[in-house]
Every structure is written in structure tokens, then in C-alpha cells.
Amino acid sequence: MKTTSKRAVALYALVVFFVLGLAFFCGSLVTNADNWAMQSINKHLFVGGELENAGTIYDADGTILVESKDGQRVYNGDASIRRATLHLLGDTAGIISSGLQTTYKDELVGYNFINGVYSMDGSSIGNDLHLTIDADLCATALRALGGNKGTVGVYNYKTGEVLCMVSSPTYDPEDKPDDIDTDDSGKYDGIYLNRFMNGVYTPGSTFKLITAAAALEYLPDIWDQTFTCTGEYETSGGTIICNARNGHGRQTFEEALNNSCNVAFAQIGIEIGAENMNREAEKLGFKTAESTPDTLYMDRIAAAQSTFDVSKATNADLGWASIGQYSDLVNPYHELILMGAIANGGTPIMPYIVSGVETPSGIMRQRGSAQEGRTYLSSEVANELSDLMRSNVVNSYGDGNFPDMELCAKTGTAEVGGDKEDHAWFVGFSRNEETPLAFVIVVENGGSGRGVAMPVARTVMRAACERVRGE
């Protein structure tokens, strides 16, 4: 009897261990099946560790950007389009980790938990991706950058559709340079980085829009104040030097933004105070000493975080931070969303780039759509900022440079230290209801925002508006 009991206990123990093992296996299968199927050793999908068999990716006009033919990935026939869409599509080895061929790999190879990478009829044809991107516009933007490192982004702030996303430097995926990983000249620095989504830059005077928003929030008399600029401003912690060495003289709040006056905006930032400047930056999605905001995404692509912190700053540091220097860092995608927020009365429509996933049977699923983001600004402050940015174009940049757009914008020339040229910025949006487009331009070490980034914007926005109008 004792022997029978012992055997029963041992049997029960084996059953328990079996059930636990089965549960562990099933849990691992649910959790890891995707990763197992997507291993580069899976020869149904990968050749030499690179994705070869997957669905087609199209731009908004149905232009094929990349497809699989005879067991290999084949890109668009135009080299300029291939180079302009490299960081959007990514490479087949996953080195450009933010690319769609990596972030949407499951859909492209047709993976699902039930059938793996095979359909019911035994085929392994993946799904197709349809994008909001205009490939020709991306090629135009890359040419406009003129070989400089940097990024260009354009989106429809009413629908959320991203029309253009370009990062430079780049390369032709059909003809990758042999020395790309060994060259020490610097021309390929950060070539695998999508600068639009993952780059962070000193913002320069584009940050004056953040300081202006804080002024509208915390200084009730800001419209009545005047500021006298002699070319420099002495603070208890040091001297703020203006971009106009001879000074701007006496000016209103609006004129100070038109002139992009460092002295005036340093004074404004100091008057607002470090605590309120941090509070405003936090409200607008910046990481500060007190808060880390939720990560911004464009579909599945995560963006780097913008940062601002003056909690331990001297008055001089606060002044410099208020004009976009000190330790300020801004992500271009975040900047584009802020432009969309200002244009939309304080609440942006979030950008998206995948308009739909099409199954081999022609069924469209996972459609992209307009989704509201968080509210960054009150409608009153957003509308006042919009008017101030419009005044910049009319009174400073020249409305004739951007015909039929009713453009609202701000330049930035960001000092980066050492013997490097400044970063050139230009950000803004078209207030014309026929062309509701927001944009961000960054030219790394390009020099003047007005002299370098603004001409890029002029070329890209004219082409983008023509596309939206159907011209």
C-alpha cells in the first residue's frame, strides 16, 4: 500500500511538472514565436542574414519603393528616390533599426501566430504597405539639402499624413559604398541614424517660440512691454550677446521676435523665471529635471526626447537657454508636432506614415487615420503664436518667398561650439486652408537659418503645396 502511495505521489509530481512545463512552453511560444520566426537563420525569409522575401511598399501615388523579385529585395528604379527614402524604408539587415522593413517586418513577411509566415495555401507572400509619403517630394527635399547633413519633414496638420521625411547623409541601397563603415573623413557620420526621428539638436532661435509661449502664459503685460537692445545684456551671471552687435534699439514683443533679438528674449526668459520656464517646457513635451514625458511615436517609430532644464541655471544660463542655447536639445519630429499644435489651435493631429496594410487577397487593414494628440497650448496662446510667426514672415523673411501659403515661421541659428559652423533651422506652417502643411528643416553645421535653411524650406514647401493642390 505504501509503495502504491509513493508511486501515486511520484506520478502526480510528474503530471504537475509536465503541466508546468507545458504552460512554460506555451507562454514562451506566445511571447517569443515572433522573434523565433524572424531569426535571420530562417532561409524562407532571409538570405545571408538579410530580409529578401517580403511584401511591397508603395508611396502615396502607388509608386513602388521596394519589393521582392526572384528572392531578393529590389528598390525603386530612380537612384534619387532610393537615397531619399533609405531611412524611411530601412535596410534589409536591420542596421537602420527605425526603418519600416524592421518595424513592420511581421506584416511585410505575413507573419501571424497561427500560421507563422505561411498562408493557408502554403505560400509565404507577405502583406504590402501603403504610405502617405510622396517619393518625388522626398527626392526634392534631399536635393535641396545640397549634400549637407540634416533632415526635412513635412506633414498635413489637418489629416496627420506625412508627405516628406528625409535624413542625410544617406546612400543608395542598391549600391552601398564599400568604405561606409571604415571611412574616417566624417562624411558618413551617423549615416544609419534617422535624424528626423532620432536626432537631437541645439535649437537656437526656434526656441524663442517656446519662450514666447511662456511669456504669453506667465506675463500678462507682455504685449505692453518694450525692450531696449544695445547689442549686449549684462546679467548677474554673465553677458548675453545679441545677434545684432550694434543692437536693435527699442522694440515691442512682436518686433523682438521679428528681429530674433537675443537681448530681449534673454530678458523675457529671466523675467518669466527658471521654475516657470521649466514648467512651460514640460507642458510642451520636453524632458526636464522634474518630469520625463511619454515617448512620441510616428506609427511604431519612437522619437528621441527633447530636453530642457534650467533648475540650476544662473541668470546668464537662463538667458541663454531662453534663446535656444545653454543645454537645450530638440528633436525635429517633436518640433514638427509643436508646429502642428500651434497651427491647430493648441492640439496637434499626430503624424502617421503608414496609410494601410494590404493582404495578398487585397483586403486593406490597419488603416492610418487622423488622431488627436495631447493639448500643448491653450487656443488663445496658440493663435497668438501663430500671428507672431506670421508677422515674422511678413516683416522679416519676405512673404513673396512663400506665395499663396500665408506662411507662419521662425528661423534658428544654433551655436554648437568649437570650430564647427552653426546648425541652421527653419520651422513653421502654411496657414492657407488649401495647403495645411507644417514643416521642419535642420541643416547640420550649415550656418545661418535664414541663409541656408530657409531656401531649403522655400523649395520643399513650394513643391509640397503644388502636390496638395494637385498641380
Please describe what this structure looks like.
The protein has helices at about 1-35, 80-85, 85-90, 100-105, 105-110, 135-145, 195-200, 210-220, 255-260, 260-270, 275-285, 315-320, 330-345, 380-395, 450-470; strands spanning about 45, 50, 55-60, 65-70, 70-75, 130, 150-155, 160-170, 225-230, 230-235, 240, 250, 295-300, 300, 355-360, 365, 405-415, 425-430, 435-445. It has about 475 residues and is an alpha+beta fold. The protein has a six-stranded mixed β-sheet with strand order 5-4-3-6-15-16, with no helix packed on it. β15 (about 355-360) and β16 (about 365) form a beta hairpin. α6 runs antiparallel to α15, α8 packs across α10 (about 260-270) and α10 crosses α12 (about 315-320). It is globular, with a radius of gyration of 26 Å. Residues about 30-50 and about 110-125 have low confidence and may be disordered.
CA-CA gap between termini: 93 Å
Q: What overall geometry do the principal axes of the alpha carbons give? A: globular
The portion of residues assigned to helices is 25-40%
Walk across the major sheet and give the strand order: 5-4-3-6-15-16
Tell me the β content: 15-25%
Helix-strand makeup class: alpha+beta
Q: What's the tally of helices?
A: 15
Residue windows where pLDDT falls under 50 for at least 5 positions: 28-48, 112-123
Give the overall pLDDT as a whole number: 90
What's the gyration radius in Å? 26 Å
Report the major sheet. 6 strands, mixed
